[in-house]
Amino acid sequence: NGHLELFREALSKIAVSPCEATFVSEPMAAIEAAVHFNLFPSSGDDKKIVLFDVGTSSLRLYVLSTPPFEYDNDNENILYESVFSHFGGLTLQDACVNLLSRHFYNHPKELITDNMALQRLYDASESAILELSQGGGKDKNKRTNISIPYLSMDIKTMQPKHLEMGLSAEVLEQELNTILQHTTSSNDSNDNNALSTVMPKPTNISTLVSSMTMQALDQSAIHNPIAQIHKVLVMGGGGRSPIICNGVRDGLALIGGEAFANNVFVVPPEEMVEELVVLGASLLGKKIASSDS
């Protein structure tokens, strides 16, 4: 609310004509855009929508009612919210950098003292992940070659050292799961009560998603929860990775079966997965303005 008031004050100073600023929550905006762009039809009943927001370093889950929304009351629309603050799109880059560091330096990335070299590893990892994501990332045997010239200097010979390494999507996913296993084995991995207390600790993306989903459905107190799910939507920058998206879909299959996962799982195409919120906010702004006029 404090940020909203500051925004309204700033807006009043620059606006040519009187205008109003209002707050719209990100999950509501994303669902509004998804329905508008026909990513899935409106259910027309009391079913629920599950939304996974794959951020840079966190995975958020929302359970929402289906549109039309009550714009002035988030509590009526967002039935449950949780965050697992140890996993996101950057975790995939960390996994790739780990592999590169062990290949080139023979030690983990945390021991790299050359900040410029470390940044080059992250830049190369980003390019490698994009390459492995081409074609939807369905082929785990898909490979890419990573080349970083003049990454370091051999102290004995004073000759430059270059990194050359091949990487498959399968190996990258295995390293990602190793990071996730290490994270969930720590005592504070469920500090936000995002994970189910009756399921085993997650060991990969699919079991992380199934644990978060079961906890959300239990806490939401929804009768016959699997039948009440209309769609499961993925958004956020990390949602552009097929490794993460496939993990979410597989997690849904663990709790409801393959047919259920195939029926409810929705990933926006290309850049839209990152732009749903801003698109939805624009659409809601127009609706709110029309209803007030």
Describe this structure in words.
By secondary structure, this protein is an alpha/beta fold. Helix content is 48%, strand content 17%. It is built from eleven helices and seven strands. Strands 3-2-1-6-7 form a five-stranded mixed sheet, with helices on both faces. A hairpin with a 4-residue loop joins strand 1 and strand 2. Helix 4 crosses helix 5 and helix 9 crosses helix 10. The protein is globular, with a radius of gyration of 22 Å. The protein starts with a helix and ends with a helix. The model has no long low-confidence stretch (mean pLDDT 87).
Note the topology.
Elements: H1 2-14, H2 26-36, E1 48-54, E2 59-65, H3 74-77, E3 78-84, H4 89-104, H5 115-133, E4 143-153, E5 160-168, H6 169-184, H7 205-220, H8 225-228, E6 229-235, H9 242-256, H10 258-264, E7 265-266, H11 272-292
Parallel strand pairs: 1-6, 6-7
Antiparallel strand pairs: 1-2, 2-3, 4-5
Helix pairs in contact: 2-11, 4-5, 4-6, 7-9, 9-10
Strand tally, please?
Answer: 7
Stretches with pLDDT under 50, minimum 5 residues? none
Q: Percent range for helical residues?
A: 40-55%
* Overall spatial form: globular
